[in-house]
Amino acid sequence: MKKFTAIVLASLLPISISWAADTEKMTKDSREAIKMLGGELKATLQASMKANGPIESISVCNIEAMKISQRISEEKGLKVGRTSLKHRNIANKPDAWEKSVLQQFEKRKAAGESPKDLDYSEVVDYEDGKAFRYMKAIPTGDVCLSCHGTNIAEPLVKKITSIYPDDKATGFNKGDIRGAFTVITPIK
Questions:
Q1: Residue 80: its pLDDT value, please?
Q2: What's the N-to-C CA distance of the chain in angstroms?
Q3: How far is residue 94 from each of residues 63, 86, 99, 137, measured CA to CA in Å?
Q4: Residue 16 needs a FRET pair 20 to 30 A away by CA distance; which of 31, 48, 89, 157 works?
Q5: Residues 160/162/164/168 CA torsion (nearest 10 deg)
């Protein structure tokens, strides 16, 4: 029996090593996609804020962010986006897995971890098979506070409410977890 167990375990070892290498690659690919999305979104938003002000820049998060996410997803062969426990756009509402991870991020932050260091990945059952899922927390920065902070100008509140009547994404302070980047990579 010991010999049989050893043979079975030995035959599984290459699968385990291969699986570990695959998850390392998927983590790297996820981080790269997030870096692209975060970098491009931040640069686009900052340029718009400087040129047009906050009211006109709402379209960056409303329209341009989705376009950027879709383009990067197609380029990378995965699905990258943003989500939050306090979402503004219903299209960014977290699914059950994302909600659970976001809640864990809040607990980890409360325990002293920096939001910029919070990430999590897992292989899960997904649709017709398995998927590698990855999330990286988004700390609230200065550029976020104009539209997501505690003291939002009234004209901006009116514009936000007209686009997002069910907005939940206000009341943040610098350093709070604004939400997270989320990546889904189907495993074939």
A1: 98
A2: 34
A3: 19, 9, 5, 13
A4: 31
A5: 60
What the block records as the tokens of 172 is 């943040």
CB proximity list for 124: less than 8 A, separation 6 or greater:
97, 130, 131, 133
What is the SS3 assignment for 125? strand
Helices 2-59 and 154-163, packing angle to 10 deg: 120
Q: Considering all CA atoms of the chain, what is the largest pairwise distance in Å, rounded to the nearest integer?
A: 75
What integer pLDDT is reported at residue 148 of this predicted model? 94
Distance CA 170, CA 7 (A): 58
Q: Which residues of the chain have pLDDT under 50?
A: 4-19
pLDDT score recorded for residue 62? 81
User: How high is the pLDDT of residue 20?
Assistant: 53
**Among 132, 135, 136, which residue's Cα sits nearest to residue 26?**
132
Alpha helices in 60-141 (DSSP H): 65-76, 96-110
Can you give the pTM of this predicted structure? 0.85
Structure confidence at residue 3 (pLDDT): 52
**Measured between alpha carbons, how far is 149 from 79 in angstroms, rounded to an integer?**
28
Spatial distance between the Cα atoms of 120 and 104, rounded to a whole number of angstroms: 9
Strand partners, 126: 129
Residues 135/183, Cβ–Cβ less than 8 Å: yes
